[in-house]
Amino acid sequence: KSEQLTQPASVSLQSGQRLTITCQVSYSLSSYYTGWIRQPEGKGLEWNGMKNTGASYYKDSLKNKFSIDLDSSSNRVTLKGQNMQPEDSAVYFCARVIVTQTISRPKQKPLRA
């Protein structure tokens, strides 16, 4: 089953204003993280942060700029940005995040007879 994420086609702001983008998702917000990524024109993707009902993580350089709010009752995830500037102009994507965990086992010392 493919999951659905829906967000506005565009948002217009003036310099110094607050950004609010809401993403409507079809999955349980407690089961997955939802992340926000942005891509300025002509540049690569930049990870902003991700959140589920239990935890949130932000890129260090952006954690004072952006916050992510969840509304579990309506399955909405909202990215909020403050004091937006021309350099923040970008395509902003919401995305379901699948977190994988790497477990490293301690190396065993060889047995000597």
TrEMBL record:
The keyword Cytoplasm does not apply. Residues 1-104 form the Ig-like domain. It comes from the Eukaryota. GO terms for cellular component: extracellular region; immunoglobulin complex. Keywords: Adaptive immunity, Immunity, Immunoglobulin. Pfam families: V-set. The keyword Iron does not apply. GO terms for biological process: adaptive immune response. This is Ig-like domain-containing protein.
